TrEMBL record:
<dbReference type="Pfam" id="PF19054">
    <property type="entry name" value="DUF5753"/>
</dbReference>
<dbReference type="InterPro" id="IPR001387">
    <property type="entry name" value="Cro/C1-type_HTH"/>
</dbReference>
<protein>
    <submittedName>
        <fullName>Helix-turn-helix transcriptional regulator</fullName>
    </submittedName>
</protein>
<dbReference type="InterPro" id="IPR043917">
    <property type="entry name" value="DUF5753"/>
</dbReference>
<dbReference type="Pfam" id="PF13560">
    <property type="entry name" value="HTH_31"/>
</dbReference>
<feature type="domain" description="HTH cro/C1-type">
    <location>
        <begin position="21"/>
        <end position="76"/>
    </location>
</feature>
Length: 294
């Protein structure tokens, strides 16, 4: 669903940091967004998108904003200019951009955020999280989606999914906490052999110090997260707010407002509390893997 979403691009961490600083400078200058828009001869919406980190800030626009906000400190102006250049470079130079022919903007921006996140918490109702999928599982999901038509497109998407998984290894690995509905273990994606290998891969991944996997069994009945999967991305940078990617019947949506993010944080806390412990979850995954082997 990610690769075909048409919802607005999310903020990057650097873009949001720059936007936050520009918002504070505007407010310190006593200007409303309407007044700032008039000073820059642009729309109020453009000011809002810049401050929310949703669009790149061109250096001429940054210079005009700093002038309108009467920012004279040369060190501050230089630091904000460097932040803008770095944010724009991160948007355009990520490894994922070479796969632009098979990735929609929303998915590319998700990967950009993922590369900067320190922690990901996710609930999945039907599929294994992308960061934990085997190549065969990825391929089966990609073919079934019917969103990519040629063998070349399918293989490129598989390459992207596998490249993303490098975030789970290295010197500063991403911390992943996944709560999976029991349905994830039962869905015959790719057939019994593919599922057996996938579940064994989950078992191996669950032994990593930075990966926590819990299973929410059918026997626990109705729960608040059952209406759709979501991902909560957390960042280690000071003042960097969490963001949420949630799926609904019409596509994927980004949520960044504090109250909305807090709602999903509460949903995840409830899901992990209701789920089996990591040790109990491994036992269930192991049992399901044996069933696929039979």
């Amino acid at each position: 669903m990610l690769a075909k979403s048409t919802t607005p691009n999310p903020s990057t961490v650097l873009g949001r940091q720059l936007g936050d600083e520009l918002r504070r400078l505007r407010e310190a200058a006593g200007l409303t967004t309407n007044q700032a828009a008039e000073a820059l001869d642009c729309t109020k919406g453009k000011i809002s998108r810049i401050e929310n980190g949703r669009v790149a800030v061109r250096l001429p626009d940054l210079t005009a904003m700093l002038q309108a906000y009467e920012v004279a400190d040369p060190e501050l102006r230089e630091r904000l200019g460097a932040l803008a250049r770095n944010a724009n470079r991160r948007r355009s130079q990520g490894w994922w951009n070479q796969y632009g022919s098979v990735l929609a903007d929303t998915y590319r921006d998700y990967i950009a955020l993922e590369t900067m996140a320190g922690e990901i918490r996710t609930f999945q109702a039907q599929l294994v999280p992308g960061l934990l999928q085997t190549p065969e599982y990825v391929r089966a999901v990609t073919v079934a989606s019917r969103q990519w038509q040629t063998v070349d497109e399918i293989e490129k998407f598989v390459q992207v999914r596998l490249a993303r998984q490098e975030r789970l290894t290295g010197d500063s690995p991403l911390h992943l906490w996944a709560v999976l509905s029991e349905a994830v273990l039962l869905q015959q994606v790719g057939g019994p052999q593919v599922m057996q290998a996938q579940l064994e891969h989950l078992l191996a991944a669950s032994e990593q110090h930075n990966v926590t996997i819990q299973v929410l069994p059918f026997s626990h009945g109705a729960h608040a997260s059952m209406f759709g999967p979501y991902v909560v991305l957390g960042f280690s940078e000071e003042a960097a707010l969490d963001v949420v990617l949630a799926d609904n019947p019409t596509g994927s949506i980004w949520l960044e407002r504090e109250a909305e993010v807090a709602r999903y944080q509460d949903l995840f806390d409830a899901a992990r509390t209701s789920a089996l412990s990591p040790m109990e979850s491994r036992a269930v995954i192991r049992r399901r893997a044996k069933e696929h082997r039979a």
